[in-house]
Design a protein that fits this description.
It holds the Pfam family Ribonuc_L-PSP. By secondary structure, the protein is an alpha+beta fold. The protein is 23% helix and 27% strand. It has one domain: RutC-like (60s Ribosomal Protein L30, Chain: A), CATH 3.30.1330. The chain has a six-stranded mixed β-sheet with strand order 1-2-3-6-4-5, with helices on one face.
Length: 132
Amino acid sequence: MTSSTITLSSPPDVARAPTYEHASRAGDFIHVAGQVARDENGNWIGGDDAGAQAVQVYRNIGRVLAHMGARPQDVVKITVYMLDRADSAAITKARLDFFGDHKPPHTGLLVAGLGGPQVKLEVEVVAYLPGA
């Protein structure tokens, strides 16, 4: 769905969400919906291992960004929702591996629950892509 100022879209290599698109472009900003550890076929990845889930989450974020014409270096804000503080180090490692030397502002939140019992974390990002 496209209007004159907002474009909503989802890449073909990220599991479809039945009630929303994975990204919106409003002006120079791209907002990526919270991503979980589903592969492109909708299978859950990582089991109870939050670090393995985080690797898939960032893989999905990379795919959504690429679909919108952006790169990880264009991300200006990261928000991570996680269930267990003990998973923080593994989730952080996946984030640092994905972004490398790029270290945008990050907020980490502990929450009581997410979209299902298998979900250990969810990550959303905002990217800035002027003039595209």
